[in-house]
Amino acid sequence: MTTKRSPAEAVPDRAASLQIGEVAERTGVTQRTLRFYEEKGLLKPPSRLDGGFRLYSEEDVQRVERIKDLKSLLGLSLADIKEMVEAEEVKHQLRATYRRDAEISERRYKINKAIELTQRQAGIIDQKLTALQDMNDQLEQKLALYRGWLANLDKQEKAQT
């Protein structure tokens, strides 16, 4: 006979554990979306209680919020979002293990790795900014064209009077 464990007993290394419905409610995404993010590797597989109930940490909730921000604010693809979020996690690990008293070569490696990850993130954003700027330029050209047409109509109207 299996006994149902409390979230704290099921995952002692995770601070607070929330079930999928609670995470969905807090983040404003559906349970299906959370499972999809897990399937696509955007979320780490959650811990589970006996009976298969998914348990998420506060860190998972923050990651879902970050995914939502990247998706809605920047229109990033899920692959880009995954790369952005994973880069943040690696940089966090680098910061956590960085020691001022370590060998210079080790410190240099960690700093260079952080630079590389941040450059990749900036590259993703730059691609989006370039695409948005191109779209904006096209819209500005259309506006100029339409305003030109209106100016011509105004001239024609004045010539008729």
Highlighted features:
161 residues, mainly alpha, 3-stranded antiparallel sheet, 6 helices, disordered N terminus
Characterization of this structure:
With 161 residues, the chain is mainly alpha-helical. The protein contains six helices and three strands. A three-stranded antiparallel β-sheet has the order 1-3-2. Helix 4 packs across helix 5 and helix 5 packs antiparallel against helix 6. The radius of gyration is 25 Å and the shape is flat.
What are the SSEs and their pairings?
Elements: H1 7-10, E1 18-19, H2 20-27, H3 31-39, E2 47-48, E3 54-56, H4 58-74, H5 78-97, H6 104-160
Helix pairs in contact: 4-5, 5-6
C-alpha geometry: flat
Helix and strand composition category: mainly alpha
The largest sheet has its strands arranged as: 1-3-2
Given as residue ranges, the uncertain stretches (5+ residues, pLDDT < 50) are 1-14
* Helix proportion: over 70%
Beta-strand content bin: under 5%
| Termini gap | 95 Å
Mean pLDDT: 87
Query: How does the major sheet shape up?
Result: 3 strands, antiparallel
Compose a concise summary of this entry:
The protein is mainly alpha-helical. The chain is built from six helices and three strands.
